[in-house]
Amino acid sequence: MLTLEKTHDEARQGEAFAPFSEDPNQYSRHFYIESYGCQMNFADSEVVASILQEKGFGATRDVEKANLILLNTCSIREKAEQTVRKRLTEFKKLKKQQKGLLIGVLGCMAERLKSKLLEEEKLVDLVVGPDAYRTLPQLIEEAGTGQKAVNVLLSRDETYADISPVRIDSNGVSAYVSIMRGCNNMCSFCVVPFTRGRERSRDDRSILKECQDLFDQGYREATLLGQNVDSYHFTPETGGDAVNFAQLLEQVAKISPLLRVRFSTSHPKDITDEVLHTMARNKNICRYIHLPVQSGSTRVLQLMNRTYTREWYKAKVERIWEILPDCSITSDIISGFCTETEEDHQETLDIMRFSRYDFSYMFFYSERPGTLAQRRYADDIPESVKKERLQQIVHLQNELSLASNKKDIGKVFEVLIEGNSKRDENAWMGRSSQNKVIIFPKTLEGLQPGDYVHVKVEQCSQATLLGNIVSTI
Ligand code: SAH
Ligand code: SF4
Ligand code: F3S
After folding, report:
1. Cα(187) to centroid(ligand 2), Å
2. Which of 60, 186, 364, 375 has a 20 to 30 A CA-CA distance from 173?
3. Does 289 lie in the same domain as 358?
4. Pocket residues for ligand 3 (CB within 6 Å)?
């Protein structure tokens, strides 16, 4: 069994998130929702919760109390889909016990498989794609009368801009804010352009309002989300100037110096000097860039349709260090893509060492139906080789993470407190601007989640820094 760092879809898989309504008794019907996949899916579940609550559905964490079970699903790798299928089979058993229970699949798997889940496999009652959540209430009514309830239409303009997400399982300190949907990039391995449709940007005014509201409610960190945030581009219909990502970032940062701003994901081809300079000017934009490399070999990158070379990527990393010397860089890496040789693999290890990633999400290649790679290239690397290479990648990343953490010993960081340490309620857990987790004892009275403190790092493991408060802010 391979031990991997947590991945996008595996990190939170199996954890069920259900929003709590203010008064569960005011609702006659209840829904239960589980989310899988990337942060965008978690943000979407908060939109879904808002739409359902508006229509009189209260949230429950108890599956047995639910009239409606929803799974917001991911298709990125085969394993992600298998997990959901297993879960659906478990829920199908519940259906026999609970009369009138409806089961729905949302998200990327719904989009990819469409009515197949409903017709061939009879696992679910409703299938709703990522752009069709506004029609959920109507589809629930239809499914309730035994009709086939499917809406997987993708949209060119849906951004759910006017919907205030109901924060699910929130720590009250950090929240996701979706700034765009879809992806136009067509990386050859990736199913996302097919499941999420064309790229579109959300109105900057609605983004700013959501961030301001979060701040007013006591939140202290907003993570701006998109598959490719650097291509954010909003043109107001009423005329006026278009807004790009750097400008949006600056506007959000100006809400308050006490609001930390993060963003994910940056495609290396699109992150601009303007964005880096905007970060440098605004200390509350976190020193953290997720810059997925995928492979260190120019030949493989070309097959992946990533549109940059190894040298171009390295130059981008150097540019980040030049403008933001204390910036943390993290990555996504795929082992065993079509035709990958041992030499290509060594180039991946080499670019990891060069970039000194603080953290990476690491995967072995999983062929996805309908993608460019599936149509054009043979999935020709044996699974044992993919896994062996992945293990080497994971091993190297562990070394890099430890080395990076060791360098922090003796330094003082500004830390935003998120809550209690999981292992010790007499200690706080917070993060540095670089997104590193720091644990430190509660030596000062009167602090609470959402407060900032200066913490001096004394010790570390590969995953965590340990320190002591030196002053408040
Ligand atoms: N938009 C983001 C990534 C979204 S998917 C970006 O461009 O970086 C998250 C990660 O899953 C990808 O970066 C990639 O490393 C991985 N991934 C995507 N498709 C995959 C596949 N078919 N097999 C294995 N990993 C995959
Ligand atoms: Fe997939 Fe590439 Fe788009 Fe990321 S940028 S979602 S990897 S197609
Ligand atoms: Fe998965 Fe869809 Fe996100 S495929 S990674 S949930 S966009």
Report:
1. 6
2. 60
3. yes
4. 8-9, 37-38, 40-41, 74-76, 107-108, 191-192, 195-196
- The percent of residues above 90 in pLDDT, for the chain, comes to 87
Residues 6+ apart with CB under 8 A from 220: 173, 174, 258, 259, 260, 416, 450, 452
Residue 183 CB less than 6 A away from ligand 2: yes
Q: Do 134 and 223 reside in the same domain of the chain?
A: no
User: Last residue of a domain, which of 391, 407, 423?
Assistant: 407
Number of domains comprising the chain: 3
The CA 227 to ligand 2 mean position distance, Å, reads 6
432 within a domain of the structure (yes/no): yes
Same domain, 82 and 50: yes
| CA 190 / ligand 2 centre spacing (Å) | 6
Query: In this predicted structure, what is the pLDDT of residue 99?
Result: 85
Give the distance (Å) from ligand 2 centre to CA of residue 366.
Answer: 14
The amino acid occupying position 329 is I
Q: Is residue 97 part of a domain?
A: yes
From CA 32, how far away is CA 59, in angstroms rounded?
6
Share above pLDDT 70 across residues of the chain, in percent, rounded to a whole number: 95
For residue 196, give the CATH number of its domain: 3.80.30.20
The answer to whether residue 162 sits within a structural domain is: no
Binning pLDDT at 50, 70 and 90, where does residue 16 land?
A: very low
Of 464, 413, 458, 419, residue with least CA distance to 442: 419
Alpha-carbon span 49 to 58, nearest angstrom: 9
The count of other CB atoms within 10 Å of the CB of residue 157 is 9
pTM score: 0.94
Paired residues of 455 in beta bridges: 413, 469
User: In ligand 1, which atom is closest to the CA atom of 368?
Assistant: 22
Quote the ligand 1 centre to 76 CA distance (angstroms): 7
Residues 298, 268, single domain; the answer is yes
Tens digit of pLDDT for each residue in 419-471?
999 999 999 999 999 999 999 999 999 999 999 999 999 999 999 999 999 99
Dihedral sign for Cα 154, 155, 156, 157, please. Answer: negative
Domain limits for position 464: 412-472
- The pLDDT assigned to 17 comes to 44
Nearest atom in ligand 2 to the alpha carbon of residue 265 is: 4
Answer with the one of 104, 119, 151 that is the final residue of a domain.
151
